[in-house]
Amino acid sequence: MHLTPADIAALGEIVGHYPHKRAACIDALKYMQARHGYVSDQSLEAIAVLLDMSPAELDEVATFYNLIFRKPVGEKVIYLCDSVTCWMLGRDKIARKIQDLIGIRQGETSTDGRYTLLPIVCLGHCDHAPAMMIDDRLFGDVEPGQLPGILEPPD
Ligand code: FES
Asked: S-S: 119 plus which of 78, 82, 92, 151, CB 3.0-4.6 Å?
């Protein structure tokens, strides 16, 4: 995926908000993801040139932030908390039910491209563990039986 003229213009505007080019790296990555769904190797290399960074430096930033995707993901991303409270209160049962319903395990995308299931560190919703998030919707006290309604799986 190459940068389009529109991408280059938008990224230039983002960079202009910062005193140093590399300070714009998170916003630049978020822009690319919002526009193209993920940040491809080619995009990352092109953005790195714009920011006067090496691709390796920018990739370190991209992989540090677990909300930046380096590979294509489904239309909906399910983030299932894998921190300690959720582990203790049944996140494995939730993961198994998701696998039963839509056939994906952690790190996988459904064959129809609708869902990707990813682990995530504590969502800050421990008092309602197990917790999960779908895109920007947060769910707590999740029971396996609630998942069909939460996921709205295809018929
Ligand atoms: S441990 Fe899961 S929300 Fe905090």
From this structure: 82
